[in-house]
Amino acid sequence: MREMVIHLNLFAIALAGAIAGFFASRFGGLWTPDQIWTAATIPVAVALAVSMLRDMLAGRFGVDAIALVAMLASIAMGEPLAGVVVAMMYSGGNLLEDYARGKAERELRSLRDRTPRIAHRQEAGGLVDIAAGDVAAGDELLVRAGELLPVDGELLDVRAQLDESAVTGEPLPETKTRGAALRSGTVNAGEAFRYRASAAAHESTYAGIIRMVEAAQTAKAPFIRMADRFALLLLPATLIVAGLAWWLSGDPIRALAVLVVATPCPLILAAPVAFIGGVSRAARSGILMKGSSAIEALGQVRTAIFDKTGTLTEGGARLIALDTAPGVEAGDILRLVASLEQASHHVLAETLVALARQKALPLSAPTAVREYRGSGLEGVVEGRHVRAGSRRLVLGYGPLPPWATSAGTSGDMAAALAVFIAVEGQPVAFLAMADAVRPDAAATLQRLHAAGVSRILMVTGDDAGTAKAVAAQLAINEVRADCSPADKVAAVAAEQARQPTVMIGDGLNDAPALAAANVGVAMGARGATASSEAADVVILVDRIDRVAEAVSIAQRTRAIALQSIVVGLGLSGIAMVFAAFGYIPPVAGAFLQQGIDIAVIINALRTLVGPLQPGRPGVAARTPRIAGEV
């Protein structure tokens, strides 16, 4: 903000001086036009000299020196009008760059400005307002309508409506049910609700996002660092061309014109604005790029390595099939087995109970429950004996019932856990539970192939059978199963030796591989802190299609930055040649160069938007096929 005010004041001085000089040339006055233009140029030149000195003491040096030389040479050669135009255009260019940066950084700044500050804690005497930083794990908090959640936690009430758009990019509110994990930084879009804090503010999701945003705003891409180094060559090159023009023509004004059209440099303006715009564009889709270097690296990847569980798959047991005997209602069977499973601590039991509650099926308390470790359980529900478990436990050595069609199929069933159900000793249903492939996984891999990613691998700690069953449904070139974290790192290293590689994962065991890859992409929606910290890119929404979108954004951002630089430098080079041969006078050259700079910045700002194909927000996951349902 302070720099923008300075640049605004300098631009106002130069502009006022240019106008006053024109009035003086027409109407006369105490000062001649040349004196007014010179006086208006000097403050800008002094400010630039101070800025250059400060940068040199900090070890930085840029082509702004060309602007200083052009202004001083204009005054010395009796062309103060050219000098004031350079001063006006230089300060105006800086002002335009400040505006462009501010516009590009707005999305990231809005995330930081939304940091929750107040929490309502339930204590013995009632609700007490405290600073969000004072919340401790285990505190019971109240969130009123429209308020931000200050910390991560677990929902205590029956349900809550949350707007997660600022964190994930999803535009529609999401309904959470009792026991659901809630993330800080989201907004209560419904009635007030209670939840229990699971972490302090500095350990919560939103605090981690803010840390990553700060890193994103300070990290500098190798592409930009290369541009800075290349810019150092422009000053001597410009001085050589100007000197030759003077020497060969004998006209110092041609040298001045060359200096003017080379001021300032599109190379310096284009790359930072484009990359910051790309980071901002990604943030709107729930994709956090940790700086320009992440975008540059992601835009060059040609190999993608995916973890399986929680990345290509949903990361939890899901009901994928339910077959019932003739005359048996699927809903009644689901209600009975879910009632029985309430007595079990198995992860599959939690899934079945949650599914029954989601469908609003009334559950009963089971009695006389007996659990067979690794095989299933039995008990009495509403006076009926119910048994659920493996085929041997329920059917013994008997044949499959003819209605259990899913039990004999391949495909999804290859990696599924089969559960047979008997009521009063009679087999009545078969259900299959599996970690299903994400609905958008296949389309995501297709988009990556279309974007130039020629090789896609899946590395997983699961057994080969389960891994191959998942890979059979996707366009994957190679599968590596039974992988330890060290094996995943080795796989990344082997692929990096061939071509730039991105690793996508979500768990603690993926963190080493994410850190080792050219680019690490973490599926961070479920709060995998270690993987998010190790990754260069974090997907804040639980959607795999955002990986393909991140690659699209990165490729487009890099292409626009390169395009702006090449076109800007090309036009400046052509203008320098014309100026050297006397076809462009200094004043016209100053206006021409400013036009080039404006075009470069406007082009770089195209990274804020783009014809991308993000996954449709709010699309529900694929539902299981249940016999009898419509």
UniProtKB/TrEMBL annotation:
It holds the Pfam family Hydrolase. It catalyses: Zn(2+)(in) + ATP + H2O = Zn(2+)(out) + ADP + phosphate + H(+). Residues 115-214 form the P-type ATPase A domain. SUPFAM superfamilies: Calcium ATPase, transduction domain A, Calcium ATPase, transmembrane domain M, HAD-like. The keyword Transmembrane helix applies. Keywords: ATP-binding, Cell membrane, Membrane, Metal-binding, Nucleotide-binding, Transmembrane, Transmembrane helix. It comes from the Bacteria. InterPro entries: ATPase_P-typ_cyto_dom_N (IPR023299), ATPase_P-typ_P_site (IPR018303), ATPase_P-typ_TM_dom_sf (IPR023298), ATPase_P-typ_transduc_dom_A_sf (IPR008250), ATPase_P-type_domA (IPR059000), Cation_Transport_ATPase_IB (IPR051014), HAD-like_sf (IPR036412), HAD_sf (IPR023214). It is found in: Cell membrane; Membrane. Its main location: membrane. The chain crosses the membrane at residues 6-24, 65-91, 230-249, 255-279, 565-584. Its EC number is 7.2.2.12. Belongs to the cation transport ATPase (P-type) (TC 3.A.3) family. Type IB subfamily. This is P-type Zn(2+) transporter.
